[in-house]
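Quick one:
INPUT:
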């Protein structure tokens, strides 16, 4: 029975998926673990990324620009975003499967990137098959069965009430 290198999935329609993953990253770093926090489908600055850059044990990988919401992106933007995501995926794969120099990897919003075909799905599956002794966290709504089959933990954040329903936009420091 394996007890290290487990897979966590934080999913659901509620707030808190990235926040939970960020908290785990900080906890792991506080215990001396080397953490790789890779973001997909996101590019704008966020409070957690600003703070991660102050913690030597946490390295952040993300696109160098924000492409916006997938459904409002042009075909060219989708191509550029996928290229950026594939580069991030390759860097994660290298660190986890070849160098083996990290102990926790967060794949923030991977579930959405996977669903929209914005990452190399075969490479992600190969990563999930070969992450011995590396804890993996995947966040995002509606993870595919392909991803769920690897999960040791599945945590669902359920929205009961959210300010967005009353027209309150995402707020800096709270939602990002």
């Amino acid at each position: 029975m394996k007890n290290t290198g487990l897979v966590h999935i934080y999913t659901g329609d509620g707030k808190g998926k990235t926040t939970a993953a960020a908290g785990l990253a900080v906890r792991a770093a506080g215990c001396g673990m080397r953490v790789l926090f890779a973001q997909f489908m996101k590019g704008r600055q966020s409070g957690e990324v600003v703070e991660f850059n102050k913690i030597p044990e946490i390295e952040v990988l993300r696109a160098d620009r924000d492409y916006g919401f997938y459904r409002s992106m042009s075909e060219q933007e989708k191509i550029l975003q996928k290229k950026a995501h594939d580069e991030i995926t390759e860097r994660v794969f290298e660190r986890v499967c070849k160098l083996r120099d990290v102990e926790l990897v967060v794949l923030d919003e991977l579930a959405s990137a996977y669903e929209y075909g914005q990452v190399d799905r075969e490479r992600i599956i190969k990563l999930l098959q070969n992450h011995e002794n590396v804890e993996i966290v995947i966040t995002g709504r509606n993870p595919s069965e392909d991803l769920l089959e690897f999960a040791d933990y599945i945590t669902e954040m359920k929205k009961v009430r959210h300010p967005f329903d009353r027209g309150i936009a995402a707020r800096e420091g709270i939602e990002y």
